[in-house]
Design brief:
By secondary structure, the protein is mainly alpha-helical. It has 10 helices and no strands. Helix 7 runs antiparallel to helix 8 and helix 8 runs antiparallel to helix 10.
């Protein structure tokens, strides 16, 4: 039996045991899914009256408008969060102590504040409209988290890269722009996408301040007495759309990562074999 440096290759008995575990786990999951479907049918969640609203053009337009408002809030908040995160990360990596302390204070404060509290504060205390209030809260929180992601990505680059760049006479701005950040992006990308997924899901908090986003539209449909309060059908319609948007965002991140690996700037360059050069003056080889 062959072995590796990390683990022993499973033998026949271990493989049979793993297959048994897989079959049992699959059966348990199918049984759980079957029980959930049974309960939904038993409580009348698939009755035609509960699903009738989705056949009306007005309801469909309401859902599409809510989805568009959700994507609009997310796009604005994502762009501003990335910009704020980069700015705060630069402040935390600054050589000036005062700038570094101020950036750290801002990051730690907004990371500790609940998103909903910030949204309500901007909406109620500052009397800002729903969309700017929602975007402001999402930007302050996610921007602070992304600042730590950017800082960790830059610091994750091998120290020798920084020292080599400074030894070539490059300024700190050039070192960050051309050496550290491009290499740190690979380490940052999964965490950046994860935080953007959080921002996408947190746009649903907008319904608490009457912003007409996707969840707000679903709430209006679910609370309709004319259709026997179709709460579960609304969840079954809205949840897959949220999940699909998050999966698209993750797929986009994987596509960017693959493109980056194939980039000419990151590919290995073939170096020709060394050839005998011209002898220096005074150099006499035997």
């Amino acid at each position: 039996m062959t072995t590796t440096a990390l683990y022993d290759v499973p033998g026949p008995r271990t493989k049979r045991r793993h297959r048994l575990y897989g079959v049992v786990s699959t059966l348990v999951l199918l049984a759980l899914l079957g029980w959930i479907v049974y309960r939904l049918v038993d409580t009348g969640q698939f009755e035609a009256v509960k699903w009738r609203p989705f056949t009306y053009e007005g309801i469909q337009e309401l859902l599409l408008k809510g989805l568009g408002n959700t994507l609009k809030a997310f796009a604005i908040a994502a762009g501003l969060s990335l910009a704020l995160g980069a700015l705060l990360a630069a402040g935390r990596l600054s050589d000036f102590r005062v700038v570094r302390w101020l950036a750290t204070l801002v990051v730690e404060f907004f990371r500790a504040m609940p998103v909903l509290v910030m949204i309500f504060f901007v909406f109620v205390a500052l009397e800002v409209k729903p969309l700017p209030a929602l975007v402001t809260g999402l930007t302050l929180y996610n921007g602070s988290v992304l600042a730590e992601v950017f800082r960790a990505g830059v610091n994750a680059v091998e120290r020798g890269q920084r020292e080599a760049a400074f030894s070539l006479g490059m300024r700190k701005t050039q070192v960050m722009t051309y050496v550290l950040v491009p290499q740190g992006v690979r380490a940052m990308l999964p965490a950046i996408i994860s935080q953007l997924v959080v921002a996408l899901k947190d746009t649903s908090l907008g319904f608490l301040i009457t912003y007409e986003e996707f969840l707000h539209a679903g709430k209006l449909i679910a609370s309709n007495l004319d259709y026997d309060l179709p709460f579960i059908p609304v969840v079954l319609v809205i949840s897959p759309i949220y999940i699909g948007m998050c999966m698209l965002l993750s797929g986009f991140a994987n596509w960017v990562a693959r493109r980056q690996r194939r980039s000419v700037k990151t590919e290995a360059v073939e170096v020709s074999r060394p050839e005998p050069g011209t002898l220096l003056p005074g150099d006499h080889r035997p």
